[in-house]
Design goal:
By secondary structure, this protein is of the alpha/beta class. It contains 11 helices and 19 strands. A hairpin with a 5-residue loop joins strand 9 (about 200-205) and strand 10. The longest helix has about 35 residues, at about 70-100.
Length: about 375
């Protein structure tokens, strides 16, 4: 930033009315919707990395709103009314994402999802089975179908999963291609006239009567409105926010001929998840093994989680086999005391849209829409 030309200042950095910090799912959708609501507004998105370093390009591609065991835990925190409101936001966010980009562009497949239980989780499995009718009735007005969940344990033998004794289906769940989704969002943002700049880490923000100051290395910008959409990293700019990072570790195997895992799969109350990607297994999660160690924004892999994932792969997903691991990575999600995201004005002209509570694919587009509306109003 210390060697910018006159042209770079004038063309790329000056005159932005709205600056959005973070080019992930929330930030880009907020930028696109801001341009829809205010076609004349000059919108600038600043991303510190080559690609977003949170979860937008590092998630497993689950288009879901929660398995029964997850819904039970979330309902215990806030009651059925709060749960219904949050599931509504997730379902609406998925609908908005699909409508904005199109199913083909994001590789969306309405293939259904499954929650697995092994013999050691028999008590939990029984409790979840007993509540199938309850959650079908509770969520029917949101999802628009009477039967969402059902006992699909009879399908287990055909999948060849090891040790799984109970399987519950969510027929309203789907999957998508995370990379194609983010590529489509970037294309849509540029087509909408949004300026997206990568490699621009923001060091500080401060709202005021004359505008919001955005501090970069060797450069300060001023805009009428600034939106912080950095999710798990938002406390670096606004320490008072109720945001706790949660790192998720993921691996992808070598191609496994004959692999047949149609759908998305949840295990251990949603803390572990897997799906088939091409001929490979994508498997992630395990942060509940050591919450404290995974409450970090630092990328990284830990032996404890990686060994757990590989053992689950060997015992359950492809029993008796130890396929080579071709890819390993981590992404960072954001959690808090409340299930709902934080979308609000925190200082004059300074807004935030953060904390998707591990449901960024479902919540992201809806959060971006709400943030754009808030700033436009």
């Amino acid at each position: 930033m210390n060697n910018l030309s006159y042209w770079e200042h004038q063309t790329f950095l000056q005159g932005a009315e709205v600056v959005i910090i973070g080019a992930g799912l929330v930030g880009l959708t907020a930028a696109i919707y801001t341009r829809q609501l205010r076609p004349a507004a000059r919108v600038l998105v600043l991303e510190r990395d080559t690609l977003p370093n949170g979860a937008s390009t590092k998630n497993a591609g689950f288009a879901c709103f929660g398995s029964i065991s997850e819904l039970r835990e979330q309902e215990a925190r806030g009651g059925p009314h709060d749960l219904l409101r949050v599931v509504q936001a997730r379902w609406e966010g998925l609908r908005r994402l699909r409508e904005l980009l199109g199913d083909e562009a994001i590789g969306y497949r309405p293939e259904g999802g499954y929650e697995l239980f092994r013999a050691a989780e028999a008590e939990l499995a029984a409790a979840c089975r007993e509540q199938i009718a309850y959650y079908n009735e509770l969520l029917a007005p949101v999802v628009g179908r009477q039967t969402i969940f059902r006992n699909a344990s009879a399908q287990l033998p055909a999948l060849g999963l090891g040790g799984a004794t109970v399987m519950l289906e969510n027929n309203a769940e789907g999957s998508l291609d995370t990379g194609r989704m983010m590529q489509a969002l970037l294309r849509r943002a540029w087509a909408a006239g949004v300026m997206v700049l990568h490699g621009c880490p923001v060091l500080g923000v401060e709202g005021g009567a004359s505008g919001v100051r955005v501090q970069l290395s060797g450069l300060e910008l001023t805009a009428g409105q600034v939106l912080v959409a950095t999710n798990a990293f938002s406390q670096q700019l606004l320490p008072a926010l109720d945001v706790v990072p949660g790192r998720g570790q993921v691996l992808v195997t070598e191609p496994i001929p004959g692999l047949h895992l149609p759908g998305t799969f949840h295990y251990d109350k949603g803390y572990t998840y897997f799906r088939q990607v091409g001929e490979r297994v994508l498997l992630g999660g395990g942060r509940n093994l050591d919450f404290q160690a995974e409450e970090t924004t630092e990328p990284g892999l830990t032996p404890r989680v990686q060994q757990y994932l590989e053992q689950l792969l060997h015992d359950v997903i492809v029993p008796g086999r130890r396929p080579r691991i071709d890819y390993r990575w981590s992404g960072v999600m954001a959690f808090g005391q409340e299930l709902e995201p934080i979308i609000q004005q925190v200082q004059p002209g300074l807004f935030v849209a953060v904390r998707c509570n591990g449901m960024g694919v479902a919540m992201g587009a809806g959060s971006g829409w709400q943030a754009a509306q808030l700033m436009s109003n």
